[in-house]
Amino acid sequence: MTDALDLKTLKSDLEDAGQPWEMDPGTDMALMTEDERRVRLGFNPPPGAMTLQEAVKADKAAPAVTSEIIASESIGAPAAFDHRNVSGKNYTTAVKNQGSCGSCVAHGVAAVMETTYQRSVANPNLNLDLSEAHLFYCHGGEEGRNCQNGWFPDQALDKAKQKGVTLESVYPYTGTQQACAVPGGWQNNIAKVTGKTKLTGRAAIKNWIATKGSVTGCFIVYQDFFSYRSGVYRHVSGGSAGGHCVEIIGYNDAQGCWICKNSWGANWGEGGFFRIAYGQCQIDTWYGPYGANSVTLKAWANNLKVNGLWANDSARNAWAHFQGTGWRKLVTTSDVQQQAMLSCLIGAKSGNRNVRALIDGNQVKEVYVT
Predict the structure, then answer these.
(1) How large is the average pLDDT for residues 355-367?
(2) pTM here?
(3) Of all residues in the chain, what percent are helix, strand and coil, respectively (each to 5)?
(4) In what helix (H) or strand (E) does residue 359 lie, and over which residues does it extend?
(5) Closest CA relative to residue 104, chosen from 261, 318, 304, 330
(6) What is the mean pLDDT of residues 216-234?
């Protein structure tokens, strides 16, 4: 076991290193006990994967990532990208706090799914909020995972493909170990991934982020990281505390760093986010990173406005355009149901009334005028 967090030594080491980043001894994480901090990590590599000790050894031997290396790796991708500002739009979702549970993988994977979906439909205002409780306590629990032993992002993405993840409003997360108790009917509010891709090399990671969505990132947490407040993090002080996984939402070649969203609450880091130098702590090489190929969503949408309707003589070929959602095909099991749904939407449009709709990908399965 490594020594616990030493704030006095960290302050001195940062000064000796030329203040590469700013520390804050008052973060929630810094004020916790060592045991309380460690339980909030939650990435313990499975058999056959690089162990924490091997990752630390590789990290110490890794060469510095110079500006020349960065320039050679960045051909074809923009020099910077941040999902919080894509042509003025923020496709990320709210920072969460995993509490006293090693559920970082579930938080990171859920965040990747949320950002990827909102980016894919070009709508940052959906406020998609997936249930980390469903992903971790239910799907992870089936694999024997719990708050003490954590999980792995590839398995979490596989479960999100096979079974899907419901919404936070359906099954809220608590920051302590809980039995799976997802309520019935959760299948009517569900997000799924179509598959996952393991990304090898910084160029591939950057290209994925710039063109598709965010990715998972697993890395070594050293003791100094708990007191990070701002700047581009580099390990300067303390031994390793464990492994941790987050969402990588962007990058910046000029600063030589990844931009990440953590799950330790908004009182830590840059409002819950942090920047970490390329190559540091094995974040771009250890266990992934993984991207979600695409994300589909089946959920009830409320307070929709009908902007337009379209149909032709083909059987059951009618579409509706909803404000903020776009065109969706009306899907029913009979011509009578199709006509009833279309008539309902015609009335809602003419009367400027809101609609509640069950949307499954690009299909509308049920509608109610509210």
Answers:
(1) 89
(2) 0.90
(3) 30, 30, 45
(4) strand 355-360
(5) 261
(6) 96
Look up residue 78 and give its two tokens: 């923009």
Please tell me the distance from the alpha carbon of residue 278 to that of residue 284, in angstroms, as a whole number: 7
- Four-point Cα dihedral 138, 143, 146, 149, nearest 10: -160
pLDDT for res 1: 41
Residues 331/345, Cβ–Cβ less than 8 Å: no
Alpha carbon distance 300, 291 (integer Å): 26
Distance CA 290, CA 279 (A): 16
Strands 228-233 vs 355-360: parallel, antiparallel or unpaired: unpaired
d(CA 322, CA 3): 57
Alpha carbon of 52 to those of 31, 153, 247, 358: distances in Å? 25, 16, 20, 45
Q: Percent of the chain scored above 70 by pLDDT?
A: 99
Return the percentage of the chain with pLDDT > 90, whole number.
79
pLDDT tens digit sequence for 249-283: 999 999 999 999 999 999 999 999 999 999 999 99
Q: Which residues of 139-156 are buried (b: 16+ CB within 10 A; e: fewer)?
A: bbeeeebbbeebbbbbbb
Q: How much is the average pLDDT of 37-59?
A: 94
Domain ranges of the chain: 41-295, 305-369
| φ/ψ (deg, to 5) at 92 | -80, 170
CB atoms within 10 A of CB 126: 17
Mean pLDDT of the chain: 93
d(CA 249, CA 261): 7
Distance CA 196, CA 295 (A): 10
Over residues 193-211, mean pLDDT: 96
> Residues 132, 96: contact at Cβ < 8 Å?
yes
Fold of the CATH domain 41-295 = Cathepsin B; Chain A (3.90.70)
To the nearest 10°, report the CA torsion of 202, 243, 156, 147.
-160
Contacts of 170 by beta carbon, 8 Å cutoff, 6+ apart: 131, 134, 182, 183, 186, 189
